[in-house]
Write a structure and sequence with these properties.
single chain; 660 residues; alpha/beta; five-stranded parallel beta sheet; 25 helices; binds thiamine diphosphate
């Protein structure tokens, strides 16, 4: 018996409906509406191999509308991915199930990225499509030629980030990027006409995209559109007119099918309407077999791809291996060590953003996998160096992306670059605008991606640009994100060390926060050890029986050293601790932490920003020197004074406290 097309797509529909019903929560409407598009894509077009989900030249499939997660889990199960069994589907939305509420990235599972916050998946897909272009240029189109497919919903396209990343994709002419727009005209509040009247054709054509329009339930139209998109020299968006909750007599076409179980009565009606006479979670064997066959096609595809590679120079194979599997960080330690020694001799005063530029310039000559960029602040963030080669639509043989003024987009694209494999992305903006990147930084951390954020102009020290540009609460906000290392180096030595940690880190993104203004060289000795690795270390101590410990980060380490001098003038011994990374310090043994922050010492913390993340270190008896108000527009030294961050004022405070 031949299996009909709609039996294949109905398998997705019923797995989704039944899983949502069993979990008593979830989103059945979208998988029911997009089941036909997904079936055509997987049956005829998507090149993937369930037996090797890490195949580098696989087409990427991104479910940007992550709330429709059951669509993805159904596809993975039906195509026989090892990651998703029927038991997993029965445990949809339960603790430890791979079938989480929204797709959560897991390498090798077929879940290519974490989605749920609308718009992020689109940004990741743009990053993946850029990565594909970079590697196609490097290895040739017979080796790397994969497509990136995305399902995006009304909500994805309403989000501002969709503008940023799709505009960039059009500019870069990412022809292997194909987006299916689930144009069902329904969102949570009701019809999308409540809130949007965009002319999508004009919108996307103005970005430089192809815009195609089809009936998203018509097998032939869907397939023809994908074929057409595949031949295009621009990115393509296929607007698929679909019915949310397709097949539900009372809820299809309505917001009521979007985000809650259909209910047993309605599900019985859907079964009747779609002629599906199977029990929950039961898929007839012939349908399962047909889906399995779809998956098995991939085996052949990868085999053919391997044959192509086998015919090439063996060096290509080892180069592929080196690029995607075994990053070569060899040479990094030597380079860092050499640089550290060099600067120990010259002890330069440099803004840490300049320090970072010198690091990038050196390491990018060594590490081709570094792809940098900035959201239109290259010169200020010092992200572009003499070794930067610009990537553009005509030439992807480069290592630097001008993201334009698109911070949020940049961060989501960097996640996509990292997810593709073989790339360590870094990108810059002002620390104040890390707020514009936050949702994507959070996802870098949640996914455990090696993404490096460069945030310069890290405090009131930027001076005259004023309070709109002076970060106050940003450091605290970033530090509140789990699994993100926030580095604030104090000099060139620390900048080198922090970069080294960021590059070596396996599953943790990094934010390297840098000053606009110059800082002196503070490193006390030339050791091979990476002092920043433990998060904090002693810079200078006037006596081992010091009764004050000054703990600072970044530019305020200089201030701490000045306070130390003043205290000494008054016969008060103290210790200066630099704490470039709280997250690493907090992970150290209790002994180490107690050695650094001695119990009987008066702990004084200094940072030109919110004190919130420092409060835990003073244990109620110390002093937090920081800023809990907005800054001012003035030359920076005046602002420091105005906001009480001067050695005189801090010394007075300490003396007063010691007298208490
Ligand atoms: C950034 C973000 N804001 C809000 C939400 C909550 N949310 C989930 S789906 C959705 C909109 C649903 O409409 P649509 O995108 O058209 O999906 P469909 O109804 O077609 O499934 C919203 C607001 C979210 N997931 N992400």
């Amino acid at each position: 018996m031949t299996v009909k097309f709609n039996q294949l797509s109905n398998a997705i529909r019923f797995l989704s409906i039944d899983a949502v019903q069993k979990a008593n929560s979830g989103h059945p409407g979208m998988p029911m509406g997009m089941a036909d598009v997904a079936t055509v894509l997987f049956k005829y077009h998507l090149r993937f191999n369930p037996k090797n989900p890490n195949w580098i030249n696989r087409d990427r499939f991104i479910l940007s509308a992550g709330h429709g997660s059951m669509l993805l889990y159904s596809l993975l199960y039906l195509c026989n991915y090892k990651s998703v069994s029927i038991e997993d589907i029965k445990k949809f939305r339960q603790l430890n199930s791979i079938c989480a509420g929204h797709p959560e990235y897991k390498k090798g599972s077929g879940i290519e990225t974490t989605t749920g916050p609308l718009g992020q998946g689109l940004g990741n897909a743009v990053g993946m499509a850029i990565a594909e272009e970079i590697f196609r240029k490097k290895f040739g189109s017979s080796i790397i030629n994969n497509k990136t497919y995305v399902i995006a919903s009304d909500g994805d396209l309403m989000e501002g980030i969709s503008h940023e990343v799709m505009s960039l994709a059009g500019h870069l002419k990412l022809k292997n990027l194909i987006v299916f727009f689930d144009n069902n005209k329904i969102s949570i509040d009701g019809p999308t006409s409540l809130s949007v009247s965009d002319n999508y054709k004009k919108r996307f054509e103005s970005y430089g995209w192809n815009f195609l329009e089809i009936n998203g339930h018509n097998e032939k139209q869907i397939s023809k559109a994908i074929s057409k998109a595949s031949k295009s020299n621009k990115p393509t968006i296929i607007s698929c007119k679909t019915i949310i909750g397709f097949g539900s007599p009372n809820k299809s076409g309505k917001a009521s099918s979007h985000g809650s179980p259909l209910g047993n009565e309605e599900i019985t009606l859907v079964r009747k309407k779609l002629k599906w006479n199977n029990k929950p979670f039961e898929i007839p064997q012939e349908i399962l077999d047909e889906w399995k066959k779809i998956g098995e096609n991939g085996l052949l595809l990868e085999k053919k791809w391997q044959e192509v590679i086998n015919k090439k120079d063996p060096r290509i194979k080892s180069e592929l291996e080196k690029t995607y599997v075994n990053y070569n960080l060899e040479g990094l330690e030597n380079l860092i060590e050499k640089e550290k020694s060099k600067y120990f001799e010259s002890k330069p005063s440099m803004a840490t953003r300049q320090c970072s530029m010198s690091v990038i310039e050196n390491i990018s000559a060594l590490l081709p996998q570094l792809i940098g960029g900035s959201a239109d602040l290259s010169g200020s963030n010092n992200t572009k160096t003499n070794n930067s080669k610009i990537i553009n639509s005509k030439n992807f043989n480069g290592n630097y992306i001008h993201y334009g003024v698109r911070e949020h987009g940049m961060a989501a694209v960097m996640n996509g670059l990292a997810l593709y494999a073989g790339i360590i992305p870094y990108g810059g903006t002002f620390l104040i605008f890390s707020d514009y990147c936050k949702p994507s930084i959070r996802l870098s951390a949640l996914m455990g991606l090696k993404v490096i954020y460069i945030f310069s102009h890290d405090s009131i020290g930027l001076g005259e640009d004023g309070p709109t540009h002076q970060p106050i609460e940003q450091l605290t906000g970033l530090r509140a994100i789990p699994n993100l290392n926030v580095f604030r180096p104090a000099d060139i030595n620390e900048t080198l060390e922090c970069w080294e940690i960021a590059l070596k880190s396996k599953n943790t993104p990094s934010a390297i926060v840098l000053s606009r203004q110059k800082v002196p060289y503070i490193n006390p000795d030339n050791t091979k050890d990476n002092k920043c690795e433990k998060g904090a270390y002693v810079v200078n101590i006037t006596s081992h029986e010091s009764n004050v410990t000054l703990v600072a980060s970044g530019t305020e380490v200089e201030l701490a050293l000045k306070v130390q001098e003043k205290l000494m003038e008054n016969n008060i011994n103290s210790k200066v601790v630099s704490m470039p990374c709280m997250e690493l310090f907090n992970k150290q043994s209790e002994n180490y932490r107690n050695d650094i922050l001695e119990k009987d010492s008066l702990i004084v913390t200094l940072e030109a920003g919110s004190i919130m993340s420092w409060q835990k270190y003073i244990k109620n008896k110390g002093i937090n020197c920081g800023i809990d108000q907005f800054g001012e527009s003035a030359p920076y030294k005046e602002i420091y004074n105005h906001l009480d961050l001067s050695e005189e004022k801090i010394t007075n405070l300490i003396q007063k406290k010691l007298r208490e």
